[in-house]
From TrEMBL:
This is AlgX/AlgJ SGNH hydrolase-like domain-containing protein. One of its GO terms (biological process) is alginic acid biosynthetic process. It comes from Saccharopolyspora hirsuta. The lineage of its organism: Bacteria, Bacillati, Actinomycetota, Actinomycetes, Pseudonocardiales. One of its GO terms (cellular component) is periplasmic space. GO terms for molecular function: transferase activity. The chain crosses the membrane at residues 31-51. Keywords: Alginate biosynthesis, Membrane, Periplasm, Signal, Transferase, Transmembrane, Transmembrane helix.
């Protein structure tokens, strides 16, 4: 107690420098760190004032400015926002990659960070911390092929066990079918699953991702009734004599989307596709998503198709670009070869390559993104209740990694309660 009474009545930083208890309020290192932090967080705002706009490098929306209502989440969210909105970020990524290749002879380990993941998808990524030196954002395969690093990392470091994933998918089937609706589940395979021969001979996570992939495809189709399209996709590729996935993009081609449309229609009404006539139509360039992670702007050629479900020469496709975060409705008058039962669909970026052909073959279709399901289960329930058929298209990497928030059975139960209140008889 006597020692406390002898303490000076002012803050130690205000004592004379020669005083033995003097401590600077901010040392030089602290001051430098403070200046750097201020520059980091204010640079996006200053550059925006002078006309600079952030470039989207990954196939996801730029991180939004955090809300003050998020509590401590406001401060933790600032890092993701500032990183995404830094000016000249693309040039910085390109420089880092070029330096790594020139000095070390290998691509830079450019991980997308711990916020929203690329592809698809815009999926909410709350993954455990992964060593970016072990799991790179981009895997360079053979013959110039590029693969998304999350094909490997999500399998090796899942958020949910495979048992939990299967339980979540089974719960969805249960609540949908209990309401009298038909339930269809499609798992869009990863490119690394369909073309493992184009992966490098040796890469980080090869053993754990291979084991997880084999277990996933062994169990999920059998235990959930999911449509396994791996064989059909390879058959279509062999018939057309070209890969059904883009070499530098993570998605399948329009031929993959057409294959999915065929499989869904045949499951609902076997034989209905016998009258379909598919022909090549326009070609256009598509910005590839994987090179974006390396700061590169590269395109792949897209071959689109016309589809006449009645076998005529009249194209019935509808090309309406959408990420499905706002529900997209596609409707057309019924024709022979079309499915007339209203279908409500949960689908991600793979469905973007299928939606023109689903629009050509389903008279009443609405698609919403998987992220929106957990964000607003009530709205999702109302949307799905409009359909007699409920179809899910989900990406393998996000299912295998347990990354979809909608895999929580509680989300299925909330939507299921609304479906139960509006049964199909």
């Amino acid at each position: 107690m006597s020692r406390q009474k002898n303490l000076p009545p002012v803050h130690e930083a205000w004592l004379p420098r020669e005083h033995p208890l003097h401590r600077p309020r901010h040392g030089r290192r602290q001051l430098a760190a403070l200046v750097c932090a201020v520059l980091f967080f204010t640079a996006p705002l200053v550059s925006w004032v002078f006309g600079a706009r952030p470039a989207q490098l990954e196939n996801r929306p730029l991180a939004a400015f955090p809300s003050v209502t998020d509590g401590w989440g406001f401060f933790t969210g600032l890092n993701a926002w500032a990183t995404d909105h830094l000016p000249f970020r693309r040039q910085a990524v390109q420089s880092v990659d070029a330096l790594s290749r020139g000095v070390f002879g290998e691509p830079a380990r450019l991980d997308g960070g711990s916020h929203t993941s690329p592809v698809g998808a815009g999926q909410v990524d709350e993954k455990p911390q992964i060593d970016e030196n072990v799991f790179p954002a981009v895997i360079e395969g053979k013959g110039g092929w590029l693969f998304l690093g999350h094909d490997v990392s999500y399998r090796c470091v899942p958020k949910r066990s495979l048992d939990e994933v299967i339980a979540g998918l089974r719960r969805w089937r249960s609540v949908v079918e209990a309401s009298g609706r038909k339930f269809q589940l499609v798992i869009a395979p990863d490119k690394s699953t369909v073309y493992p021969e184009n992966m490098p001979d040796d890469y980080a996570g090869e053993d754990c991702s291979t084991r997880a992939r084999e277990e996933f495809w062994k169990r999920v189709p059998r235990e959930t009734g999911a449509l396994d399209m791996r064989t059909q996709l390879r058959d279509v590729a062999a018939r057309n004599q070209r890969p059904i996935y883009h070499d530098i993009d993570t998605h399948w081609t329009h031929e993959g989307g057409i294959t999915m449309a065929y499989q869904l229609a045949e499951r609902l009404a076997p034989g209905t596709t016998s009258t379909w006539k598919v022909r090549p139509s326009r070609q256009y360039p598509h910005s590839a998503d994987i090179p974006d992670l390396l700061g590169q702007d590269r395109t792949v050629p897209i071959q689109a198709y016309s589809l006449a479900p009645d076998g005529s020469d009249v194209d019935n496709t509808q090309f309406k670009p959408s990420d499905f975060h706002e529900p997209l409705h596609l409707g057309s008058p019924p024709k022979p070869g079309m499915i007339t039962k209203p279908m409500r669909m949960v689908g991600d970026s793979f469905t973007q390559f299928a939606s023109p052909y689903l629009a050509a073959t389903f008279t009443d279709l609405t698609i919403v993104h998987p992220d929106q399901v957990a964000v607003d289960p009530a709205a999702t329930g109302q949307l799905l209740a409009e359909g007699e058929v409920v179809t899910f298209e989900l990406s393998e990497r996000f299912v295998a990694g347990g990354r979809y928030p909608m895999l929580d059975p509680a989300v299925a139960d909330r939507v299921g309660a609304i479906l139960a209140a509006h049964p199909v008889r």
